Amino acid sequence: MRRKTSAKVIIGTNISIILMQSLVLLRIIPHQWINGGRVDNYDQAAVVSVVSVLIFSIMSVYIFYNWIYKQSIKPSRMKRNKVGFAIFFGVSFVMQLAGTNFERYVMSIVCLIPLVALILWKEEE
């Protein structure tokens, strides 16, 4: 998988996570389905959802600019980016497996997809 393809996969999954968090903010998805079911009300869920939307939005903009738009990136910086994002999605995957059924069966797959994209990534020659 090439860099741009990996970036598009990661941005696509980030958009799906942003959409899911937005559905919680709009009270379409019950707040008990996220955060391992540990939030007591929608106000607490809203804080977590807003933070998640911000994190995934910033990550998507960063990936778009540095991995798709920019043509040349130092290999050492690219490797650090890949390792950092792989750790982030790996930890997210494990946390989703320990959560509610929705997180375990839906969101864990959403977190696994970018992790696999990063693992299968081949450097362009």
Walk me through what this model shows.
With 125 residues, the protein is an all-alpha fold. It has helices at residues 3-25, 42-69, 75-97, 101-119. Helix 1 (3-25) packs antiparallel against helix 4. The radius of gyration is 15 Å and the shape is elongated. The relative contact order is 0.18.
What distinguishing features does this structure have?
mainly alpha; 4 helices; elongated
Helix content: over 70%
Tell me what portion of residues adopts beta-strand conformation.
under 5%
Broad shape: elongated
Major beta-sheet overview: none
Tally of helical runs: 4
Uncertain segments of ≥5 residues (pLDDT<50)? none
Distance between the termini: 12 Å
Q: What is the residue-mean pLDDT, rounded to a whole number?
A: 89
Content-based structural category: mainly alpha
SSE arrangement, N to C:
HHHH
The Cα radius of gyration reads: 15 Å
Beta-strand segment tally: 0
Summarize the structure.
By secondary structure, the chain is an all-alpha fold. It is about 75% helix and about 0% strand. The radius of gyration is 15 Å and the shape is elongated.
Itemize the secondary structure elements and their pairings:
Blueprint: H1 3-25, H2 42-69, H3 75-97, H4 101-119
